[in-house]
Please model this.
Amino acid sequence: MSLQPAPVTFEHLRDGLGIGAAEPRLSWSLPDGHAAQDAYELELDRAGVLHRTGRIPGADQVLVGWPGQPLTSRERVSVRVRVWTGDGTEPSPWSEAGTVEAGLLDADDWTAVPVGAAWEQDPDTDRRPARVRKDFTLASPVAHARLYVTAHGLYEAEINGRRVGDDALSPGWTVYRERLRYYTYDVTAHLVQGPNTIGAWLGDGWYRGRIGFDGGYRDLYGSDQSLIAQLEVRHTDGTTTVIATDPTWHAAESPIVFAGLYEGETFDARLQDPSWSTPHRAEESQTWTPVATATRDPRTLIAPAGAPVRATQEIHPVSVSTTSDGRHLLDFGQNLVGRLRITVDGPVGTTVTLRHAEILQDGELATRPLREAVSIDTYTLDDTGRQTWEPRFTLHGFRYAEITGWPGELTDGAVVARVHHTDMRRTGWFECSDPMINRLHDNVVWSMRGNFVDIPTDCPQRDERLGWTGDIQVFAPTASFLYDCAGMLDSWLTDVAVEQLPDGTVPWYVPVIPGGPQWTPIKPGAAWGDVSTLTPWVLYQRFGDLELLRRHFPMGRAWVDLMERLAGDSRLWDTGHQLGDWLDPITPPDDPAGARTDRYLVATAYFAWSARHVEWSARELGDTEAAERYGRLSDEVAEAFRARYVLPDGRMTSDTPTAYSVALAFGLLADERGRQLAGDRLAELVLEDDARIATGFVGTPLICDALTGTGHVDVAYRLLTQTECPSWLYPITQGATTIWERWDSLRPDGTLNPGGMTSFNHYALGAVADWMHRVVAGLEPASPGYRTIGFRPRPGGGITWAKARHETPYGTAAISWEQTAAGLAVHVTVPSGCQGLVELPGHAPLAVGPGEHRLGTGDLDRTAA
Model:
């Protein structure tokens, strides 16, 4: 057992290199077995100059304020911590050092300008990407070197023939006009004294590639495809060399003939010079021409707040079949997001074509759901023999792939699927005695992985892939249990605030692109706009980051102020365009908003709920005046909601599961009697339909909690375990390995849903996993950041055991339970520095401290007796 605290980490980053905060907050976890921290001391090593804070009383250990002078650009500091706990008067040993290094914190640090191809390109065509490079000489040995790099478009950098980094689709997608992310790489080992070459592959990406609906739009952020790079080399003699993108760089056409996020990538290896990013003689460089330069305000360049996209897993096909005309059909056994890597040998000029789809129909790829995202990659072989290739600047959502033109036998390992997503740290796990529910949970995880690709998207495969605000609003509690997504979502919420209209309207999706008459111009819509109030609160509760809540508070407040103006004195938001309970299973394929629940009931409910969240947020931030104002507003909206939508007998004007679910989950009913009437009626409606799902995007995340909170947990389990369509388990009976967009994306007769929106990888309806974590397993935060942890399992549904584990900011929290002859046996783990509250069915809550605890209802019964 370690006696040291864990190494210090910085902000919400796994790696402190290139951080964008001059005063990064620090976190650490206590040595195992220690109940609480009484005090701590930090040591900062700044280039050999030590600074110690001395003993600081207090229990803070997560996101603790920077204890010294702010970092300056490029400054590297090692930080150690030691702690005093209640176990003794002596401090612990010092932790291992964590190292943080600032990126380029000031606009004046940048000398690089965007550089790209100078030749004319028709903006209405599939433009061929370029590569750019520069040869240079280092006169003395290298001590250390950093590459700061971004692009208008996408990039992959190389130095002296070696790839820099392992990230993909960088710099990702932000609101580029305001915020363009750059990455920092340690490239010390790439450089040598003497001749060197730096270069980069370029791709269109989201910046100027075709994205969006109905054929998409090009050049949404600019028409140039450019690299912005600054290589800074510190020599052993103390001197510095800076190689920045400028007019002295050169460009040439790439062997990537075309690359689009939706379309796929076409690569001709015959056009490849494998030594292109190594030092060249002048006569070898005739095809390289001077670059064109563009402009970029360096004040818009930002360091990352979270991890980049990476390949995180490789999957081999589970079956390969060959058609009569020589095509190979591969099933990877899992709907995933990524790319194929092929290893192939054949005659020069052979072209291998890779097509992708999520599902088969009649033994062939079903590509209709992809709409105009054709998802085809092609590779033309050169004469070098065995060669391995993977696309660089595209991404596909697929389970199946069709390969045409493969020369010879398709051997084991020749084609591998590489899974890509934002490389967040996994933090949450769940398992129970029911294999179908375990598969459901696995499907939720896979859908999150496939849709957390730099931004939280709705779907990863068709011509859309947008950051829909409503989807992540309902899914954020699940997401923040499964993965440490705080940094990624904090960054994306910053873009939501950038895109928020002056009147407070929150867009349907962020970043905003043209969306046709339904989505453009932007209109305020309940459940979607409420991402501005609800999601920051969820992240605060799950990660304990008060500053994140503070940063996004103005956005949420402006949204609620807008709803107040739209509702007026009536306090009812009963006008305007609303999506309501989107994709209620009764909606026809061509009208996903045609739900059975009054859309204005939904809008007014969210108005009250968001106002309540602004009240809570203001109170946490110490703004008592704002808290009181928005608390009164929420009360007024709730009263108006009851007067309009709740009938004297307790029924609602929309006698639907979603109506009762929002009223209960959002606390809109006047008293316990009203709550019980609503809960009883909700249970009746569910059972009348034999526990089939009758809710859409709004009602689905709420219904199990609404039932549980009114004494109908058995009915919630009936919903969870139903296998007939529509239900959570119906897709699993059809072989689903991800969450579907529609309950019947694949119909019981085996046909595809005919609607234009038929995705087989959408995480929104998987928001039920949060209920599974909190109720089935019984693990939930009882105070921000899991400083206090609730252990409250509520067994049912024939499940005989369940377990969950979560890596909290303080360490591992876990619960496992099983039904035994003596009752419910429970094992809980409380991390050091935290407290647990264990509440078993029929018993009062029991406070427990850090460590392992085994409890049972039988033991508690005997103790009570």
Remarks:
- The chain has a mean pLDDT of 96.
- The radius of gyration is 28 Å.
- The longest helix spans residues 546-567.
